[in-house]
Amino acid sequence: MRIDVVVDTPQFTTDTPIDGATITDRRRFEQVGRISGKIGKASLNNPESNENEPSDPRRIDAPWQVPVGVTQGNWDYVRANQIASDYDSFVDGDPLTRVDWQIIDRYLPAIDAQSEGNPGPVVADFGCGTGRTLKPLLERGYRGIGIDLSIPMLREFKKKTDQNLSQHACPLLLHANLVELDSLKSGSIDHGICMFSTLGMIQNSVHRSSFLRHVRRILKPGGQFILHAHNTWFHLRHPGGIRWAIGNACGCILGKNEFGDRIANYRGLKQMFIHSFRRRELWSDLTNSGFTDQTWFGIKPGQTVLDDRLPLASDLRLVGWVVVCR
Known about the structure:
By secondary structure, the protein is α/β, with parallel strands linked by helices. Helices cover 32% and strands 19% of the residues.
C-alpha cells in the first residue's frame, strides 16, 4: 500500500510507515525539530521514554522551547503519559463522539475491497490522538495518516495498530506541530479530519489560519475536510458565563487575549488553553483559507442523533459545530 507523502524535516516520525512513503535526508533547522529532540522509532517503541515529557509538573519551559501556537499548559498536556493512557476511557460514551461518527459515516462511507493497483483513499487525521476516529476508518478500507504533537498519544495509537490491524492497514504516524506542516506535499491526501475541537487548542488566530491553509493545500481537489469546533456563546449558559464574557471581552480590548480564549485546569493539569468560536468567526477562517463550500451541523448538549437542521438561535443553544468543508 502506497501513500505519496513527502516528509523532509526532522519534526516528523514515521514509526509504522505505509510502504512507499518517502522520507528524504534533507534537514532544515526548524523550531519543532530543535525542541522535539530525538523523536525517531525509539521514542514510540519505548513506553518508558520520557525525553519529550516534563520531568517536573511545575517546570516552566522557556518560550523558545514551546512550539509555535502552543501554550505552556497545552505543551504539558501533549507530553503527559497519563492523559494519553486514559484518553479512550475518558471520552468513551461522550455523546459528542457519537454525532461526530454519524457525520463521518455519511461523508466517508466504507470502501469496497481494494486491490494492489487500486488502493483506498488517504485520510489524514490532524490531531489524531490515540486513533479514536482514524482507526475505524482504516478498518473500513481507507489508508491513513495520523498527525499529532503528542508522542504519548502516538504510542497509544501504535499499540492499537500493532494489536488489531494488519500491516497492510497500518497508518503512517507523524509527530508534528499542526501549525508547521510545510513538509507535507501539496495535494497528497484525499480527505482530512480534525475532530473534538483540536483546532481550538491552537493559540492565536494567525496560527489557526496557518493550519487551515496547510490543510487546504495538502488536500486534493474535490477532497473533504471534516472539522469539529466549540461554540463561544454556549459558555453564557454556564454559571458565571456572563461575567466570563465581559472579562474576556475586556482582555480582548486590552490585547491580552482573543475573544473566545479560555484557560482552565483539566484532568490534573493547570493552565490548559482552548479557543471556542463564534459561528461567523469560524466561517470566515475557513472561507479565507479556501474552503468556500461548507456544510454545517449543529451539536446540542447531550445530542446523540444527527440533526441536519441548525436550530433557531443556534448561537446560544449549541455546544459546537461540525463543518464539512470542500
